[in-house]
Structure formats: C-alpha cells, structure tokens
Design goal:
about 240 residues, alpha/beta, Rossmann fold
Length: about 240
C-alpha cells in the first residue's frame, strides 16, 4: 500500500492509501476503513452496492446521505442523475472525497451533525441514508426514535430510510434495536442481513420498502465485481426481534 496523504482531522487521523497494481484507493480513519473504491470512484464495498441497488429500486432521485467518508455512494448516485446532499461533521472528508474518490462538485456538502441539520433543513427527500459511524458504531443520538421522527418529517410520502449497520456476529442485537426504533415511527420495517458472517454490514430500512428485492451489482467496479455480487447474494431479509 502507498500512503497518498495523512490528515490530522478534528476527529482523528485519516489516511488515504493506494494499492499497488490494482490502483484501488482506501479511506482509513483511526484504523477503520470508511471507504474503498476503484480508480474511477466506484465502491468496492458490497454494502454500498446494496444501498445503491435499493435506492434504485425505490426510485429515489433526491437523496440525503448522513455520513461521507470517501463519498462513494454519493459519487455513484450523482452519476445516475440523482440530486445528492451529504452531511458530515468532519469537513476534511469532503475535500478528500473530491480529491481522491471523484466526488462531483454537483453533490451538495454540509459540515453539520446529522440531527442538527435535519432540525434546520426544510427540504423533502425521496430517501435518507444513515451511514455515520464513530469507530464501528452509529452514534446513539443518530439511532433514537426522536431522530427517526425528524427523518420522517423530511421524507416524501413514499420516502424511504436506509441505515448501514455494522454487525459483529449473529448475537449482535444492534440491527434489531435500530429496527425497533424505526418501528416506533414507521409501520413497515425490514432487515437485510447476511447471517452467519462475522464483522458484516446489514441494512435496516423503513418507509415504502415492502416491495424491495435483495439487490445485485448495477455499477460494476473495475475489480472485484464478481466477489461483490457473491457477497450481495448472501444478504437475505430476515425477521427482526423487538428489542427495547
């Protein structure tokens, strides 16, 4: 790996790394990989392709992303002619995403906490994607019923919410806790998960999501497209437990 840049941000050290041979770029913050993409900015993370596929099925055109990292999902959505807004508390993310991950200038970026932004924003979105982490955990204030109520007030009538959740193992209750919080606000809540795998990503969703099928790769990256599609094939909808 080649270190392209190291940034001491307000929220820790960000290292931008390039892999020899393939040219893939990684965004590492405090030792955690936040984004990985090919040389054209297309994500190499299966959960990003899952989100992209779900948003495409939902017909979302105006989308709010809470959490940036390398901004790969925003880049892919913008190239599909979606209007994308990103909110992130770390201003360094936006500059790095534009420089190394091809984040387009058309993507509107706000240096704000997601909850604070929603309190002041009056826009209506087709979809909101929650992909904000402190380490490998979603901050508590971004997974409360009160926060989900704020999101509901900013969604169109057939709008959708998608949350990327890091799952340590099958006994990890976090996806179910988040689903329980969403169920306080929306009648339709679903969990898309790859049970049996350690250190995986699940998608918890709410709103107009009853018709959404498990996704597949729509925008293949330069490398690992088959691997990503195989990983997506392990994601199935499962019943979720009501955890207080």
């Amino acid at each position: 790996m080649i270190l392209l840049e190291a940034v001491e941000s307000e929220f820790g050290t960000i290292n931008i790394l390039k892999k020899r041979g393939s040219g893939t770029i990684s965004y590492m913050q405090n030792g955690c990989c936040q984004s990985e993409a090919d040389s054209g900015g297309v994500s190499l993370a299966s959960y990003i392709h899952a989100l992209f596929g779900l948003l495409s099925q939902a017909g979302a055109r105006k989308i709010l992303l809470i959490g940036c990292g390398g901004g790969t999902l925003a880049t892919m959505l913008s190239r599909s002619h979606c209007k994308v807004t990103i909110v992130d508390i770390n201003r360094s993310s936006f500059a790095l995403a534009r420089q190394y991950f091809d984040l387009p200038l058309s993507v509107e970026c706000h240096v704000r906490d997601g909850k604070a932004f929603l309190r002041s924003d009056t826009s209506v979105y087709d979809a909101v994607v929650l992909d904000a982490f402190h380490g490998d955990q979603i901050p508590l204030h971004l997974r409360s019923s009160r926060f989900f109520n704020l999101i509901r007030d900013r969604l169109a009538q057939l709008g959708t919410l998608f949350a990327n959740v890091h799952v340590r193992h099958d006994a990890d209750e976090l996806p179910d806790r988040i689903a329980s919080g969403m169920a306080d606000v929306w009648p339709e809540v679903r969990v898309l998960d790859s049970e049996g795998y350690f250190g995986r990503n699940a998608i918890v969703m709410a709103g107009a999501v009853a018709h959404l099928e498990p996704p597949h790769v729509i925008v293949p990256p330069e490398t690992d497209a088959k691997v990503i599609d195989e990983e997506l094939a392990t994601m199935k909808y499962r019943a979720w437990r009501n955890v207080p």
